[in-house]
Amino acid sequence: MELHDKRILLIISGGIAAYKSLDLIRRLRERGAAVRPVITRSAQEFITPLAVGALSASHVYTDLFSREDEQDVGHIRLARECDLVLVAPATASRMAKMAHGLADDLAGAVLLATDRPVLMAPAMNPKMWDAPATRRNLSTLQGDGIHVIGPKSGEMAESGEAGTGRMAEPLEIVAAVVALLSPGEKPLAGKRAIVTSGPTHEPIDPVRYIANRSSGKQGHAIAAALAKLGAEVTLVSGPVTIPDPAGVRTVHVETAKDMLLAVTSHLPADIAVMVAAVADWRVASSSGQKIKKQPGEAPPPLQLAENPDILKTVGHHENRPRFVVGFAAETQNVEENGRRKLAAKGADLIVANDVSPQTGVMGGERNRVMLIAENGIETWPDLDKAEVAERLAATIAKRLNAL
Ligand code: CTP
After folding, report:
1. Among residues 147, 181, 215, which one ends one of the domains?
2. 20 to 30 A from 156, CA-CA: which of 183, 198, 268, 400?
3. pLDDT, tens digit (0-9, with 9 covering 90-100), for 80-128
4. Cα Rg, the chain, nearest whole Å
5. For residue 364, is it left (φ>0), alpha (ψ between -120 and 50) or beta?
6. Does 334 fall in a domain?
């Protein structure tokens, strides 16, 4: 009963994912939580107050100006008489209202009035998730300290369209609720960490670039896991399509040079975890104008120049963090190459993984890694990237605190 005695105010806003919130209520209650539901007007187009009331065994709150509810509880009490406000699903429109502090319905008023932690589980069409307005609202909300879980990529329920926008699964949302409400140990409290993640884009001309298949999933998960253990985390991310993780300061960059600058300007730090798949080469002199095809002429040769090695720079820096972790993306001789990188880059730990296409690691959800340190190696089983991140964060905390 991880949520025994916990009171969750669940705001269900109006999207097709609202049907999953019925299961979410069940899952929260199974773990001992009391769930008080607020459902918006548009959510009632998808689910009925009767179903929500039956599953939650609670009164269902729907209106800001309900004579009965306002006298009985009122939005201020609703906002305070809980341990956490959970918005699931959070539609694009709800996020926009939250970002602007609109209180024109009960959900809005509760969200504005609450002094409790707020967790939202966005769900919307991928185009809406990618829209500049939603990006802006997300970053405003994260800046306001709102916690975010999901959305995930995959096929959409209504349109079959692929992309990012599916609400996190009820059990994932429950896990995020548990994590927020049972803070647990914070072995990295007071420690500063820098994490790099994702690919870099190296311009050829204003419209073309060199890139790689990194999704940023592993690096972002590590940033979030370090933050969960109490570290103050700066994530320097190359161009990715996944959301910024909660509780982390994210700096967005494009090229290896920019990434290096962002990383070194955040030193000193206690921990550095360099996960990014930094492009080894950039185009020596990228063109300021789009390179045009010249009839009858051979394609333009691309002259490459070596990019700075960020991990190596950090590993040998005068402000070298006390614990430096690198990754080794290999397609063969994983252990041997990992060991070589440990020494060459000045790292305390190399997380080596096989990124051959058949492993599905690049861009995928799972990873199988080998930890290589001076005093030995450790092989982990095939795990979800979030789990690799949690184990790695715990390992870093243990080793750092033993130094
Ligand atoms: N790395 C970096 N800057 C670079 C290249 C790599 O910071 N310019 C970091 C990566 O973030 C990773 C580690 O170095 O932590 C190893 O990256 P990897 O691509 O496996 O190795 P490379 O150093 O690029 O060597 P190679 O391409 O020969 O395998």
Report:
1. 181
2. 198
3. 999 999 999 999 999 999 999 999 999 999 999 999 999 999 999 999 9
4. 23
5. beta
6. yes
pLDDT, tens digit, 9 for 90 and up, residues 214-249:
999 999 999 999 998 989 899 999 999 998 887 788
- Same domain? For 227 and 361 the reply is yes
Q: Which atom of ligand 1 is nearest to the CA of 196?
A: 11
What pTM did the predictor assign?
Answer: 0.63
What residues are labeled active site? 212
Q: Do 174 and 197 fall into the same domain? A: no
Q: Specify the 3-state DSSP secondary structure of 355.
A: coil
From the CA of 327, give the closest atom in ligand 1: 15
Residue 2 counted as domain residue: no
Q: What is the DSSP letter of 40?
A: -
Pairing relationship of beta strands 118-122 and 84-90 according to DSSP bridges: parallel
Return the residue whose CA atom lies nearest to atom 9 of ligand 1.
311
Place of tokens 């990715």: 240
Residue labelled with tokens 């809005």? 108
**What domain range includes position 36?**
7-181
